[in-house]
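REQUEST ID: PR-0412
SUBMITTED BY: lab tech R.K.
PRIORITY: routine
TASK: structure prediction, single protein chain
INPUT:
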Amino acid sequence: MPELPETETIARDLDREVSGARIAAVRVTRPDVLREVSARDLARRAKGAVIDRGWRRAKLVVLDLSTRDRLVVQPRFTGALLIDSGNLPQRERAYSTIELVLEDGRSIHYRDIRRLGTVALMPPDRFDEYSSALGVEPLDPAFTADHLSGLLRGSRQAVKKVLMDQRAIAGIGNIYANEALWRAGIDPSRTARSLSHDEAARLQRDIVDVLEESIVARGTSFRDYRDASGERGSFVDRLAVYGRAGEACPRCGARLIGTHAIDGRMTVLCAHCQS
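STATUS: complete
OUTPUT:
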């Protein structure tokens, strides 16, 4: 967390609001979030650069700079990229690790309460190498039922674990793996290769649907996720299973089960609906 819908929301916000803005200065207050660049080199290479666009790859927010460098942010659990026009609450400023001061008077803060996320500055060839290790984007046309079925047939792991493997499919985390599997009526612990092509096709459809619906709702906020304007996502109100262990299944009314048996992550499922 944040997963694909949350980072997509942030990236779209940044692309809309700060594309074309020039970076006047860089202030690093918590250098432990930096990767592949020092605080001094980040300030030197980013100062004077124009932000060409903001976009997403997997769970990463990427800012393309006019220097051809890419600022690559992985928010992980408590990270956020916040646009500050002078009214950012002090509680958010208190956890700012990096500030990009823009020539127009605004700033972009990378706020990270637990500092588990990372910020890297990569030249194009390094970013291409990094990105090539990531899997298919589930919202790309290449992510078809046949593609997913092929991925699943080649794995003896639990289907939920395959969905969350960023080397196979980029951007799906625990929240949306739980939700998609519930929608598709598939037990998360089933061996991936046991799924039929029809089941894979149903799962592919439900993965795409739940991700797109969450993007429309601007993501899921439990505690720390905020969009670039500091607002919460509303998809939390539409979650069917994640965070609802012990409650009634919205489909059949049976009690939802919570378990950490799959890769140590919280899995919530309906034993009656999912097989």
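NOTES: The chain has a mean pLDDT of 96.
REVIEWED BY: pending
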